[in-house]
Input
Amino acid sequence: VQLQASGGGLVQTGDSLRLSCDASGSDFNYYAIGWFRQAPGKEREAVSVISSSYGRTYYTEAVKGRFTIARDNAGKTSYLQMNSLKPEDTAVYYCAAQFEGASTGWPLVDSKRYNYWGQGTQVTVSS
Output
């Protein structure tokens, strides 16, 4: 699976952005998709994860109620809708994919468990 993230940009506090993660390859619907972010000087953290086909989603506490993750298996794309953006959301955002089997466990928030990564897209929120 190859991934390409896009949609980042420079916005003001309170604005919205929608990130996209376009995948190529087969069996996209068998992969959980995670969105991670990394701010300067900080560790990469899981922002949101959507399971392959079980309808499960995860959000880190800081983005609950503001971000929405979705996927379009037919179009091999995942989206991260980000509303009410704050300066603390500023980071490079990455999408990642991990094959999800019955014993994979949930939620997949450990970046080390993801085998496929897209390039990052910068999100900058000015105050």
